[in-house]
Write a structure and sequence with these properties.
By secondary structure, the chain is α+β, with helices and mostly antiparallel strands. It is built from three helices and six strands; from the N terminus they run ααββββββα.
Length: 141
């Protein structure tokens, strides 16, 4: 189900609760909502659709008119390097804001079967994941 984008900064500033297998439906709604907004959005966190759970859906790859997304339950950055400053926008917030990101991150998360995964991400995908994990932490950039 495509959900409305949450713009309530008090809600968005809350730290997300851990996701469980009972939240698979939330992940499906998150993906459907992200795809509905793909022209202006490259990733989403569950709090952006009004659910305070630690679930993100970043874009993993974009080619022409094709986008591939992934869902991460309970993502945590375990290593990062190559700090830089950038400006980012967000569907839930007005305008753009300066923030610090890292060129390379190693992330631990759970997939839809709640199996633990660990992978290193770089560049644009790393920036998207960092933005969405900030949402899980209640950080408004």
């Amino acid at each position: 189900m495509i959900r409305e984008i949450c713009k309530d900064e008090i809600f968005l500033a809350q730290k997300a609760a851990p996701a469980t297998a009972a939240d698979l439906g939330v992940a499906q709604d998150l993906m459907e909502t992200l795809i509905a907004h793909k022209d202006g959005c490259v990733g989403m966190a569950a709090n952006m659709i009004g659910v305070n759970k630690r679930i993100i859906a970043p874009m993993a790859e974009r080619r022409d008119d094709y986008c591939e997304y992934m869902v991460m339950f309970n993502p945590v950055i375990v290593k990062q390097s190559g700090a830089y400053e950038t400006d980012e926008g967000c569907l839930s917030l007005t305008g753009t804001r300066k923030t610090k990101r890292h060129k390379v991150i190693k992330v631990q998360w759970q997939n839809e079967k709640f199996q633990t995964r660990l992978k290193t991400f770089t560049g644009w995908t790393a920036e998207i994941i960092q933005h969405e994990i900030d949402h899980c932490e209640g950080i408004l950039i």
